[in-house]
Structures are given as C-alpha cells and as structure tokens.
C-alpha cells in the first residue's frame, strides 16, 4: 500500500509535493549520472551534446507515444545539450500525466520510461462522523474512473478542511491515502480526524460606552460558549461569521443615530490549550445624531415639492435612522409613480450640524436616467414556480427601472423563507437603455413533519402529530394538518392559504377543525366542528384587513347531574349548527416599523354568528400591545390591554361554549377556568364563563447578570382584569359582577434550543373566595 504522510491541508500539500520532488530529483540524478559515466576520461570544459537516432518509450498504457514526444521536444537526429534534455524531462514531469519519469541515454538511443498515474477505482472519506458523505461527494474533484492526479487530490484535501472550518472545527486533520489495486487502479481514501469544535470562550468589545458588552453580544450572530455548547453551533469560531457580525454591529449603531460608527479591528486569539478563541471587537461609536431640518426641493419642471414633502414621514428631533430616511424616499418615489411621473428619483442631501448633533436633510426631486427593465431572469428554483418569485416584484418587463424597488423586491424574496440564499442583481441589457434583472436563488426545505409529546396549561400532556408545508407544490401556498390528543381533549385541524389569490396581493385561505372534550377538567362533554374560508389584504404599509364567513356546530352532552342548572339547560338545547361572518383589522409596526426600540400592535375582530341556530350573537374583541426598550436597550417594557364582549341579537341566552374563558394565558396567577362567574349553589361549583372580559398586563424583561450565552434573563409582571356578565343568573343566585382580580410575579426566560421557555411565579393580590389560583407556570414564551 502506497500512502502520503501528513495531516490537514498543509500536510497534504507537503505530501504531494514531496512525491513530485522525489521523482524530479531521481530523474535528474540518473541523467547526470549517465552523463558523467558516458566516458572514463575527464570531460572537457564544454557543454555535453547528444544526438539520438531513436527514442524508445516504455511503460505507456493510455497515453500515445506522440504525446510524450511532443512534451519531450527532441527531434530525431538533432543535437541536443544536457540542459535541453533536462528541460524535456521537466516538461514530462510537469504535464501531470505520469507518476514517475526516467530518461536514460543509451548511445544513440534515448530510453524514456514512464509510469502513468493510476485510474481511481473508489473515492471515500473515512472517519467523518459530524459531516455526512453526501456533503463531500459533490465537492470533491477526484472522481471514480478518472485518472488520479496528486494536484487534484491536494485540492480535495483543502476542500474537506474548509468544510470543517465552516463548522468551527479548525483542528480537523485530513490525510490522503492511496491503496494500490490490480490493473493500475487505486482506491483514494481521505482519512479524517475531525477534532472538537473550536469554541469562542470570550466575546468582548473595546471602545463601547453607550452600549454594554452584554447588549452588543445579543446583536451578534456569533455567541460565546455556554452550558448548552453541545447543542448551540453559533459558539464555534467561523471567520466568515465574524465579517457578518461587523456589518450587524454597524447596522445596530447606525439605526440608533451613530452615523460615524465603525469597527476598527477584530482580534482573534487562541487559548493556551488551543481549543478556544478569544474574540475582541475594537469599535468607535462616535456621536449620536438626530434629524434636523427636513426640506423638499424639485429640480423637475412642473413637479410640486410640497405634495411630495407631505408624503415623507420624518419628524425633526427624532434619532437619525437610515431606515427611516430610506422609507421616506420610497414613499416619495411611489407617489411619483402613482402620479404618472416615471424616472423620478429622490436625492437626499445631508448637511451636518456637528455643534447641535443634527443632520439637516434636503430631499431633492430629480430626473433619473431613462432605463427600462428588459426582462427578469430567475434561476435556481428547482421547486418554486417562477410566478411565486415574480409576485415579489412590483415591476414587470417594460417598466421603468427603479433600483430601490429592485432592492425591496430582493428583500421580499428572502423574506418568503423558501430559499437558503437569494441574490438579485441588475446587469446591462441588449441596449444601453435597458437592464436585465437576474434572480439567483437556492432552494431550502419548507416542510416539516413532527411527532411528539406536548404540554399546555389548558389541556395538560398529550400526543401531537403535525405536518406543515410553507411552499406547497412550489406555489407559495401554506398547508398544515395537525392531530392532538391530550388528557381531556381530542382535536384535528386543517389549514390552507394562497397568498397571491387571482394573481393579486390577496390572501385566500380556509380552515376546518374538529374538537372534542371530556369531563377531565369540566363536568360535561363537548363536540365542535367548524369550516372557515377567509380573505385578507393590506390596506397600507402597516394595516391589514380580513373578511371571513364560517359554519360551525357545537354539541354539549353528558352534563353531570350535580352541575349548575345553567349548564344543564345548555345541554338540553341540543346540537346547535349555524353560520356567521366577521372581519379582522390589524395595525402592526413590530416587524416593519422604523424605530428598532418600539413596536405597536392593534387587533380588532368582530363577528356575527349563530345564524340558523337558536342563538344569534355579536362578538367583538380588541387587543393593543406596545413595546419599548429603555436603559440603553437593556430593559424591555411590554404593555398589553385586551378585552371582549358577547351580546345576544335575538334575546336568547349564550351557551358556555360561546362565552369567554379566562386562564393563565390572559391573567397570570389563576388556574384554567379559575375565575369568573361561578354557580356556588351547585355541588360542582361550575365555572360558567362570561359575556365580557377585560385585562391589562404589564411586564419588564431584563438581564440577570448571568453570561448571556446561557440565554437566561429575568422579568417582573403585574396583571389585572375581570370576567363577568351572564344572560341568565338563575334569579340572582349567580354573581356575575365585574370583580377585579390582580396578581404580580416574577419570570425566568430561558432561550433553549428546543424553544423559548418561560417560568412564572405569581402572587395573587385580589380575588374572590371561589377563584382558583395557579402560582407556578411553565409555558412557551410568546415573542412580541
């Protein structure tokens, strides 16, 4: 067995070069030895010359003799010097066709003996546990049934090393070996010693005064190694990720008005054991600037700058944000398009007022170059249809070219979540006034199938089976089906959504579900079935409106004899099947807002239901949330106000399945169905729900001083609210008044690889005697 010694890319390179060097040296030594031994008398002091009448070639199998002669460059009967002979030898060696070359002059005959490189029989990677063979197969250039080439194998060694380096395994070593087989064939084996991840033991900053190290570390993609280092891959040292983090830091500071921020350097030091890195970012923050005077001018004849000035939404005195300036320019350019003004551009001209730390902005309307979009080329979408990508562009072939619109379209393509990578570029078209938009995407998995246990405070432990596909048949459609079986409930749901219905920015969808509950947490059983088609469309940048119709049916059975008369009456009414319609409105700046420290969410829902049943009702709910960060982004404050009302339209009484319920998800510190109107005259003291509810929640989330790589933060909260109102109080025996309930508590947030967990400990401050408490909770932390 022949083999190359060495490890890693450097060692692999040395091994192959050693082999070449030995071959070259031995050939030259033979040549010199023969030259020196050609005569027994001392050689004269002039260059030795040779004349060969014949060249014999030995050892060839696949390569023609003419090919060897062409590299050798020696003609029959021509006098050649020793230097020319050596040059021919070097050309043969450098051709890469031969494993060994020997040249021997024998009188007037030149004997050229070669050993061709073997044919590769098998290429394999051994010792790889963290990276599968399928990853390496398309990357390696050495392939079976090809001629073995040491230089190509050397490149493959480097490729394998780079794959491991991208995963933070800088200590990975690769040793190439060849195993000789019959008929001049070899097995090429790359033996891998993967080594451990080279972790980042400390991530620190120098020069930061406005934001702490802990706050800046939360911004970076790279993380310090913590107690979950076996599961978190972002704590491995990857040089490419460091470059990305430098840009992330710049965006973070500039969005907060630090326009002169820059990273002056990044140092990476090995630990003494050489198994970890210490990364230090040297930054220069600069001063924070605010928007100063905002003016609008027009250099285009006939265009009124006042109309465009009203379209921009920048307010003087606000902290400067490039995103807010870009948004204002986009608004103005879209207004120009709506007014039929093509090729209008807005040129922002910034003047600094360093004394007052202000940036005065002059928005100048100019006439841009007259360039037309010739076509849009989409490549790389093996599954996703072209139209799904094209729907993200607001321009088509023949429209004026707007660089801003193309940039925004590229962001929308990436935001689909269908692609691992998406690049959108413009290049010159077939004429000077035309451009071609190239969209190059790389498909990513969009479906998931999950099977496992679940836990919820409402339903306890259970089994969950779910299938989700976010890009069904490559059409950009959403499809999901789920089955859940818990201690006291069984449910099945199916959802479908088409985001571009009829080729417009109109989402069509429908949902159907079935749910049943038994007496594990109540004293009656229920069966519910519903079908709900809907449409939704944007109203403006932040607002969205949805319309829906539905048909549903509910049955209440097996009401316990010791339960409230109200529940027994509900069960006696039998199965109720009816229809209804409703609308939803949302105003959401959490994702698209311009202020990175603040976000708002308003949701309004209204329904008219029960049409065809014995109880027609109107239901309305509202939710408002606001979030802000204070103390240099260290503390997050969140406020939520939520309420709802259910009203009868035909004078009939609501049923328990129609009314609102209150659990720990709305008012912490109380058990599921632990508050609200309750029939104390019944043996079971059933909770009955209420026709109205209102609740306010305040909370703060802040660091606990633990290393942020642990992902553990703390919080405090205070909740207050009530659930009240019944259509029938059984002659006043049921108290349905709006009694105030309140609680305070503390939270621990833990951002784990399996999801964000939240632990709550609550202390109830105000309650009724019959209310049920729940002081400790474990939930999945909802993200604002």
UniProtKB/TrEMBL annotation:
Alphabetical GO biological process terms? Gram-negative-bacterium-type cell outer membrane assembly; protein insertion into membrane
Q: What keyword terms does UniProt attach to this protein? A: Cell outer membrane, Membrane, Repeat, Signal, Transmembrane, Transmembrane beta strand
Does this entry carry the keyword Repeat?
A: yes
Location of the POTRA domain: 50-117, 118-195, 371-444
Q: Which Pfam families match?
A: Omp85, POTRA
> Can you say where in the cell this protein is located?
Cell outer membrane; Membrane
GO CC annotation: what is one?
cell outer membrane
InterPro entries, alphabetized: Bac_surfAg_D15, BamA/TamA_POTRA, D15-like, OM_assembly_BamA, POTRA
Outline what the protein does: Part of the outer membrane protein assembly complex, which is involved in assembly and insertion of beta-barrel proteins into the outer membrane.
Q: How does it assemble?
A: Part of the Bam complex.
As for family, the record states:
Belongs to the BamA family.
Q: Can you name this protein?
A: Outer membrane protein assembly factor BamA
Q: Which organism is it from?
A: Aliiroseovarius pelagivivens
């Amino acid at each position: 067995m022949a083999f190359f010694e060495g490890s890693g890319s450097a060692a692999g390179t040395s091994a192959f070069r050693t082999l070449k060097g030995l071959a070259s040296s031995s050939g030259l030594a033979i040549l010199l030895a023969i030259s020196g031994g050609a005569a027994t008398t001392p050689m004269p002091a002039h260059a030795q010359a040779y004349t060969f009448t014949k060249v014999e070639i030995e050892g060839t199998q696949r390569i023609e003799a003419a090919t060897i002669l062409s590299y050798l460059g020696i003609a029959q009967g021509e006098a050649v010097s020793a230097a020319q002979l050596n040059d021919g030898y070097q050309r043969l060696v450098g051709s890469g066709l031969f494993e060994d070359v020997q040249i021997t002059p024998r009188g007037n005959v030149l004997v050229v003996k070669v050993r061709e490189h073997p044919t590769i029989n098998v290429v394999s990677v051994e010792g790889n546990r963290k990276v599968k063979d399928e990853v390496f197969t398309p990357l390696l250039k050495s392939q079976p049934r090809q001629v073995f080439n040491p230089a190509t194998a050397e490149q493959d060694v480097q490729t394998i090393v780079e794959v491991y380096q991208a995963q933070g395994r800088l200590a990975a070593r690769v040793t190439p070996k060849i195993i000789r087989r019959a008929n001049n064939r070899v097995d090429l084996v790359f033996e891998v010693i993967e080594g451990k991840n080279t972790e980042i033991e400390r991530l620190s900053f120098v020069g930061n005064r406005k934001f702490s190290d802990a706050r800046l570390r939360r911004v970076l993609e790279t993380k310090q190694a913590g107690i979950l280092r076996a599961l978190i891959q972002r704590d491995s040292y990857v040089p490419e990720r460091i470059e990305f983090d430098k840009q992330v830091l710049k965006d973070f500071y500039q969005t907060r008005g630090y326009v002169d921020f820059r990273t002056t350097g990044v140092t990476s030091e090995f630990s003494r054991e050489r198994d970890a890195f210490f990364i230090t970012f040297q930054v220069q923050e600069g001063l924070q600037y605010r928007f100063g005077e905002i003016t609008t001018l027009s250099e285009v004849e006939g265009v009124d700058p006042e109309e465009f000035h009203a379209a921009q939404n920048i307010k003087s005195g606000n902290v400067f944000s490039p995103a807010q300036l870009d948004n204002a320019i986009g608004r103005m350019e879209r207004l120009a398009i709506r007014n039929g003004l093509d090729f209008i551009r807005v040129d922002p001209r910034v003047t600094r007022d360093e004394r007052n730390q202000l940036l005065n902005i002059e928005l100048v309307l100019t006439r841009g170059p007259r360039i037309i979009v010739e076509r849009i080329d989409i490549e790389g979408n093996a599954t996703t249809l072209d139209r799904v990508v094209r729907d993200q562009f607001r321009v088509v072939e023949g429209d004026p070219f707007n660089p801003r619109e193309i940039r925004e379209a590229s962001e929308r393509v990436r935001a689909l979540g269908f692609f691992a990578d998406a690049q959108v570029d413009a290049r010159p078209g077939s004429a000077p006034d035309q451009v071609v938009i190239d969209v190059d995407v790389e498909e990513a998995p969009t479906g998931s199938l999950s099977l496992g246990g679940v836990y919820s405070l409402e339903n306890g432990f259970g089994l969950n089976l779910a299938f989700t596909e976010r890009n069904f048949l490559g059409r950009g459609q959403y499809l999901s089906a789920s089955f859940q079986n818990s201690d006291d409930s069984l449910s099945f749901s199916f959802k479908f959504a088409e985001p571009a219905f009829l080729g417009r920015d109109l989402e069509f969808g429908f949902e159907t579900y079935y749910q049943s509950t038994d007496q594990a947490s109540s004293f009656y059983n229920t069966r519910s079935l519903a079908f709900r088609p809907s449409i939704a469309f944007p109203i403006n940048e932040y607002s969205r409106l949805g319309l829906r119709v539905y048909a549903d049916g509910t049955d209440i059975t097996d009401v316990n004899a010791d339960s409230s008369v109200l529940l027994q009456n509900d069960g006696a009414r039998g199965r109720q099947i009816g229809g209804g319609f409703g609308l939803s409105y949302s105003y959401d700046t959490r994702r698209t807002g311009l202020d990175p420290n603040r976000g708002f969410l308003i949701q309004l829902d209204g329904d008219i239901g029960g049409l065809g049943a014995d109880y027609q009702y109107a239901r309305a709910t509202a939710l408002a949330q606001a979030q802000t960060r204070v103390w240099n982004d260290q503390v997050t404050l969140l406020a939520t106000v939520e309420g709802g009302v259910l009203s009868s339209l035909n004078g009939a009484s609501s049923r328990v399945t129609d009314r609102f319920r209150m659990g720990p998800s709305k008012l912490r510190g109380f058990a599921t169905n632990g508050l609200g109107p309750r029939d104390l005259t019944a043996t079971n003291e059933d909770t009955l729900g209420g026709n109205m509810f209102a609740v306010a929640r305040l909370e703060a989330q802040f660091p606990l001083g633990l290393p942020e790589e642990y992902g553990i933060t703390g919080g405090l909260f205070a909740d207050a609210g009530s659930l009240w109102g019944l259509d029938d109080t059984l002659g006043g025996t049921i108290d349905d008044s709006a009694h105030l309930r309140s609680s305070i508590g503390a939270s621990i947030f833990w951002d784990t690889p399996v999801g964000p967990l939240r632990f709550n400990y609550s202390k109830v401050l105000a309650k009724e005697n019959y209310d049920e408490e729940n002081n400790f909770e474990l939930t999945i932390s909802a993200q604002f």
